[in-house]
Amino acid sequence: MSRRETSDVLVVGAGVVGAAAALAMARDGRQVTLVEAREPAPWRSDTPDLRVYAFAPDNAALLDGLGVWDAVRTARLQPYRRMTVWDAAGGDTLDFDADAFGRRELGWIVEHNLLVDRLWAALPAAGVRVVCPAQVVDLTQEEDHAVVELDSGARLRTRLALAADGGDSKLRTLAGIETFTHDYGQDGLVAFVEHERPHEGTCWQRFLPGGPIAFLPFGGDGHRSSIVWTLPQEEAARLLAADDAGFLRELQAAFAGTLGALTAVSRRASFPLRRQLAQQHVAGRVAVIGDAAHVVHPLAGQGVNLGLRDVRALRERLQGTARDLPRDPGAPAPLARWARGRRSENALAAYSFDGLNRLFSNDALLPTLLRGHALGLVGRLAPLRHAFWKRAAGL
Length: 395
Description:
Layout: E1 7-12, H1 16-27, E2 32-35, E3 52-55, H2 57-65, H3 69-75, E4 78-80, E5 82-87, E6 94-97, E7 107-111, H4 112-126, E8 129-131, E9 136-141, E10 146-150, E11 155-163, H5 170-174, E12 179-195, E13 202-207, E14 213-217, E15 224-232, H6 233-241, H7 244-254, E16 262-264, E17 269-278, E18 282-283, E19 286-288, E20 294-295, H8 303-320, H9 332-360, H10 365-380, H11 382-393
Parallel strand pairs: 1-2, 1-11, 2-8, 5-13, 11-19
Antiparallel strand pairs: 3-7, 4-7, 5-6, 9-10, 10-11, 12-15, 12-16, 12-17, 13-14, 14-15, 17-20, 18-19
Helix pairs in contact: 1-4, 1-8, 8-9
């Protein structure tokens, strides 16, 4: 392959994080190729995606800078102004309120496939070359470039390859990057429900011995929420198989009737939960981002937020070295500095969520006696409460 055919950045995986990375690099004037196994289904307003995110302000600003956020906002976006967290074993609640932070909202609930749809729509105008459907089968690394081979036989040469192809990343494996993995033995069960009382723009989370249950406000007239219920795997399988009446009865009890009577308005689905961290974020000219670098427990809703912060930090690092390295985004020194910062940040987040899950997802006597009071203490100390929220918001 000639040097004229070498892209600056090749991104493998075109979900939210991968598509955002490709768009960001292209907006900065780099030649970008994006490889994806299958084209995403178009977003449809009449079929809400069960996979939703609690989107943080810093990442809304990132997408706004990429020219995508307005398109998301005009389609469907649910702001939330409050968060209420409490423990089923007792104690005080932990409350966050936008007014206390001088903001209109704490964040937004947004569907996965809406974000992907709008990011993909922006790729052609930015000059991103999309290769789809295609899968990576091999990787060769040289001093000044990497070559990614596809299942079609095509060989794509690039100065920097970004693995954004999920927790089971093929490119990460080919680059020789191993992971530390812990299986929680839990599943996350998701669905949409309608409820008798309005959600009032509030994210609710109740900790139970089997895992937390969250109600996330979702559009409409204020009477619909997305639920994310962490359960032992056998319990999740049982509730997936239950009829609507039986499921709603147990859901109502688990949520202590907080929003009144419930009605099922969607199918149910579940996904296995694990903590997984890449042992390194860079190997040669391959960098891992998003779920390829870190899979975390969903109790804090930070998975996609951490992935987009990988993108923002990498973009800032490469922009910072553009004067010295205008044509080589895969140069070792800036990548190494980016990798050190993100590995530390992602590990801190992953083990923090792990600790919270272990503390609250059990019925041992001592944690049960202490944890509700600990939530109340954080709630009463304004500086500590502000610090918790600012970290989650990326501010």
